[in-house]
Amino acid sequence: MTGAEIICELLAAGGVRYIFGNPGSTELPLMDALVRETPIDYILTLHEIPAVAMADAYAQALRTPAVVNLHASCGVGNAMGMLYNAWCAGSPVVLTAGQQDRRLLAQEPVLAGDTVAVTRPWTKWSAEVGRIEDLPRLLRRALQVAVAPPSGPVFLSVPVDLQMERLDKPDLRPPAPVNPAVRPPEAALERAVELLVAAEHPVVLAGSRVTEAGASRELAELAERLGAPIYSDTHASQSRLPVAPAHPLYAGWLPLWSPELLAILRRHDAAVVAGMDLPRLYIYREPANPVPERLRLIQLDSDPARLGKNLPVHAAVAGDLKQAIAELRFRITAAQNWEQARRAMERRERLGRKHEQARTRLREEIERAMGEEPVTPEALLGALARTLPPEAVVVDEAPTTNRNRLAMLGVPRDAAGYFAHRGWALGWGLGAAVGVKLAWPKRPVLALLGDGAALYGIQGLWTAARYRIPVVFVVANNAQYKILKECSGVMELPEAARGRFLGMDLTDPAIDFVGLARSFGVEARRCASAAELTEGLSSAFSSAAPVLLDVPLAE
Which terminus of the chain has fewer Cβ atoms in its 10 Å neighbourhood, N or C? Predict the structure, then answer.
C-alpha cells in the first residue's frame, strides 16, 4: 500500500467519518487515494479558518478525533488562529499536512518549512513522519494522544514522496480505546466534604470540562444539596455551559474583569471549582488577585496539572469529574446534619426566587424593545428565544450582543447545546456551526455571529451550500468591533473616552452580507425588525439548506 492509502485505511479503521480540508500540491497523493471507495467523506473548504473551526466543534460535540488536512507551510500558517482556539478548548483535533519531497528539502524548495516547530506551542504532540515504516504507528499515536486526558490537538506532517512510497503488509490495527476515568482519592474527598458542610455561603464555579465529562446532572444535584449558585466560566474561555441554563441556581457567567469578579466571590466562604481555571481574566485591572483569601477553594479536575495551578487550594480532588462530583454530593448528603440541610434548602429557595426575578426583569426589558427599529440586541435575543426549536443548538460568536442573556432566557434547553470558542481567535463560529451540524445532524443549529467575527470565516458559507448543511446563520450587524471599543473604555484610553476610535468601524462602504451569502450559494435576507427576524427564523429552520439572516443593530 502507498502511504496515502495507509492513511485512508487507518483513519477509517479508527472511526473517522470526515476529513475537513483545503488541499495543495503536497497533499495530492492523499486526495487521489480519497477518490477511491472509502467510508471517509472529504469536506472541502475555501480557507483554513473554517476547516479547522469545523473540526474543532465536531470534535467537541462527539469527543472523538476530528481530522483536518491542510497544505504545507502556508496552509498551516493560515490555520494557526483556529488551532489556538482548539488548544484552549482541549479539542481532540488531528491536524495533518503535507511536506515537500524529502529529496528536495536540503535545497530549501518552495513550500518547505518546519511546520512541526510552528505547531508545537499549540498542540499536545507534533511530529513529522520520516520513514513509511513509522507512518501507521505515528498516525495511530496521533489519534490516541488527541483524546487522552487532557485532550487536545495534535499535528502530523507527512512528506509528499512518503505518501506515494509503498509498504508491504502495513500494520493497520486501529487505536485501542482506553477508559480514562480515574477514581478520586478518598482523603481529598473527605477534606472537600469537611469544608463544604461547614460553609455558610458556598458557590459553584464550573467550566466546559463538566459538560465534556457528562457531569451536568451531577453538578446540578451538588449545587442543590449545597444551596449554592452556579456560575459558568468567563465568556473569554467558555465553550460549553456546565448546567442547563434554565436551572434555578444558574447565575450566569463570571465577569471578565477583576473588580467585578471580586465583587461576586467576596459574598462566599467556600467555592467548588469544577473543570475550570480560576481566575481567567481578559485585561489587567486591580486587584491583581480577585479571589479573596477567606474563600476556601475546593478544586475538582480530571487533569491534576490544573489543580492549584494559579492559586493555592484548600482541597484538590483529581479524578474523573463525573464520578468526583457525584461522590462529593453523596458524601455531603450523608455528612450534613438537620440544621445544615435546612439552611441549604433555604439558600436554594432564596436563590431560585432571586434568579427568577432577574429573568423576569430581562423578559420585561426585551418585551419593551421588541417593536423598536433599528433592532436592538435585546429584541434580537427575544426573537431568537421565542423562535428557536426546543432542541436547537446555539453556536455563539457575538459576545457583545448576547452577554449571557440567551442563557438567562433558558436557551438552549440543555447544557450540551451551547458552544463558544475559548481562544477568541475570530472567524470560528461560522465554521463551528457547520461542524456541530455534521456531528448532530438531527438537531437544529443556530450560529449567532458578530459581523466582524463572521467576516474572518465567511468562506465557510460556501461549504455549507456545497454540502447542503442546513445551518441558520444570524449576523448581529452593529458595523463595528464593539468589543474593542469596550476594552478601550476599560483601559480608560483618552481618545476612546471622547468617542474617537481608529480601525474599529466597519462602514464606508457598508458590508453587504446578503450579497456575500448569495455569492457563496446561501439563501439570505435582511431583517430590519424583530417581526421580520421572527418570520425569517421560522422559515429558515424549516429549510433543508443553509440560510443567513442579516440583522442591522441599533448599536
Answer: C
Cβ-contact 513, 524 below 8 angstroms = yes
pLDDT at position 238: 65
Distance between CA atoms of 446 and 261, rounded to whole angstroms? 30
Q: Is 3-164 a domain of CATH 3.40.50.970?
A: yes
| Residue 96, CA distances (Å) to 76, 88, 137, 311 in order | 9, 19, 15, 37
Domain residue spans in the chain? Answer: 3-164, 186-354, 370-552
CB 17 within 8 A of CB 40: yes
Q: Where in 393-499 does DSSP place strands (E)? A: 393-397, 418-420, 445-450, 471-477
- Give the Cβ contact number of residue 512 at 10 Å: 13
DSSP H helices, 392-446, are: 399-402, 405-408, 428-439
> Would you say the CATH fold of 186-354 matches that of 3-164?
yes
Backbone angle region of 528, left / alpha / beta, with phi > 0 → left and psi within -120 to 50 → alpha: alpha
Q: Please say whether the beta carbons of 69 and 21 come within 8 A.
A: yes
Fold of 370-552: Rossmann fold (3.40.50)
Q: Where are the beta strands (DSSP E) in 36-85?
A: 41-44, 66-70
Angle at Cα 102 formed by Cα 98 and Cα 105, nearest 5°?
95
Number of H helices, E strands in the chain: 24, 18
| Cα angle 131, 137, 143; round to 5 | 125
Read off the C-alpha cell for 353. 426566587
Q: State how far the Cα of 341 lies from the Cα of 350, in Å rounded to an integer.
A: 14
Q: Is the dihedral of CA 85, 88, 89, 95 positive or negative?
A: positive
Place of cell 455531603: 332
**Strand duo 41-44 + 445-450: pairing:** unpaired
| Cross-strand partners of 205 | 231, 273
Measured torsion, CA atoms of residues 283, 284, 287, 290, in degrees rounded to the nearest 10? 50
Check if the beta carbon of residue 360 is closer than 8 Å to that of residue 410.
Answer: no
Q: What is the per-residue pLDDT for 237?
A: 53
Instruction: Compute, in degrees rounded to 10, the torsion defined by CA atoms 521, 56, 17, 157.
Output: 110
b/e string for 215-252 if b means 16 or more Cβ within 10 A? bbebbbbbbbbbbbbbbbbbbbbbbbbbbbbbbbbbbb
Q: Which CATH number fits domain 186-354: 3.20.20.140, 3.90.550.10, 3.40.50.1220, 3.10.150.10?
A: 3.40.50.1220
Question: Which residues of the chain have a pLDDT value below 50?
Answer: 236
Return d(Cα 217, Cα 326) in angstroms, integer.
9
Choose among 180, 187, 183, 202: nearest CA to 325.
183
Q: In what order do the strands lie in the sheet with 250-253?
A: 250-253, 230-232, 202-206, 270-274, 296-301, 315-318
